[in-house]
Amino acid sequence: MKSGLPIPKKNFLMDWKQFYGKETLENFPAYLDLIRMKRVAPLFKNKKFKDILEMDSQELKNLGVELARDRLKLIKNF
Length: 78
Description:
Layout: H1 16-19, H2 22-26, H3 28-34, H4 49-53, H5 57-63, H6 68-77
């Protein structure tokens, strides 16, 4: 018997809203884990989800997300 969140299809990054509810969005580290970005979760401690959604590449870099591919992935999935 499986437990936890459903495993989405290949293109889940574009359709995450249909799989995960408000609870997941309020728990940003869990959301990062879903998109395989858990390693940057500590950087977003004390940040509100709404503020995170409005971040651009430079703001993410200033926050400590060093790799350009990680910033691009985050922006793409916001």
